[in-house]
Specification:
By secondary structure, the chain is of the alpha/beta class. It folds into 2 domains: 144 residues, 3-Layer(aba) Sandwich (Rossmann fold), CATH 3.40.50; 131 residues, Rossmann fold, CATH 3.40.50. Helix content is 49%, strand content 14%. It contains 12 helices and 10 strands. A 4-stranded parallel beta sheet has the order 2-1-3-5, sandwiched between helices. The radius of gyration is 20 Å and the shape is globular. The chain starts with a strand and ends in a 7-residue tail after the last helix. The mean pLDDT is 93.
Length: 301
């Protein structure tokens, strides 16, 4: 049996956990190739007209895997904390793929608000695949340990970056945008070429997230956006500028980005919204102008 994993949306948040879990159970899996223009074009032909660029890319990744595996791993994620939600894209994926493709779907359901935890979701998947409860539980525990180790190493590395003397820019965006070769990589490439250190908002210890976000907003409904806002408040005094990166037309991002623009002062901020018609030349011009601004010392003092 081979499981196909689309390299999009949930993948960039749960990559370590998913891959480690399948490895623990000796399940073969394949991950779709990194995004390119063909991936987006394939997704555009399948997606609803109101879909964001990220969802269009996701459907392109699904199409690329449809005939290459026995199952497609398509989780349904509605809430990861109590009384909050994630973007609706994350809990419509199963129905969308099920209606658009003739494929076998390997599904998990994470909805903490209604008592469906991540742990139980993975255990139910292991049982469905024929593994014992104990084997599945051990696989999940080992995968979570690896996930925690990877996250802690990333936080430590970023902490070291924050203490050096180079110019630093905080990129505020969902991992599926920031790390996608088509959406985020052109931006990080430009920053690196200009000797700018990159700080990532998703590399963030959210243990005190309510405290970290209250200066911007005390009532954020979308968990993933709340995490990004917490990182902004955590890192803003240690960076020289902030880039907010979204895919068009993301509703949660449009709300939280506006709050950040209104509440975070005395630091240069640029808001970049990517769609399928984006001009690389226009992006380069905007970023070079932004870099010129942050290279001017004490501009906001």
């Amino acid at each position: 049996m081979t499981v196909g994993i689309p390299r999009s949306l949930f993948y960039y948040r749960y990559q370590t956990l998913i891959e480690a879990f399948f490895k623990e159970l000796d399940i073969d899996y394949i991950v779709s190739n990194p995004s390119d223009k063909e991936t987006l074009e394939q997704g555009k032909n399948l997606a609803p007209s109101e879909a964001c660029t990220s969802l269009k890319l996701f459907l392109g990744h699904v199409k690329s895997l449809a005939n290459k595996c026995d199952f497609l791993f398509i989780p349904r994620i509605e809430s990861v904390t109590d009384k909050e939600k994630v973007c609706t894209n994350f809990y419509l994926l199963y129905d969308l793929v099920n209606n658009l493709f003739d494929v076998n779907i390997l599904n998990i359901n994470i909805d903490v608000t209604h008592g469906k935890s991540e742990k139980n979701a993975f255990i139910e998947m292991g049982l469905y695949l024929g593994f014992s409860y104990n084997k599945t539980l051990n696989a999940y525990k080992n995968a979570k340990e690896k996930e925690a180790k990877v996250k802690n190493n990333l936080i430590l590395k970023q902490t070291n970056i924050l203490t050096n003397d180079k110019k630093k820019i905080l990129i505020v965006g969902h991992p599926y945008n920031v790390y996608d070769p088509l959406i985020g990589k052109p931006i990080t490439d430009i920053l690196e070429k200009n000797d700018i250190e990159i700080v990532y908002a998703d590399i963030y210890d959210d243990k005190e997230i309510d405290k970290d976000t209250k200066d911007i907003s005390e009532d954020i409904y979308f968990t993933f956006n709340k995490e990004l806002m917490g990182a902004v408040n955590k890192y803003k005094d240690n960076v020289n500028g902030i880039i907010m990166l979204s895919s068009f037309p993301c509703g949660p991002d449009s709300l939280t980005n506006e709050l950040i623009l209104r509440k975070v002062k005395n630091i240069p901020i640029i808001n970049i919204v990517v769609d399928e018609a984006n001009s690389e030349t226009g992006l380069l011009t905007r970023l070079e102008s932004f870099i010129d601004i942050i290279n001017k010392e004490n501009i906001y003092e």
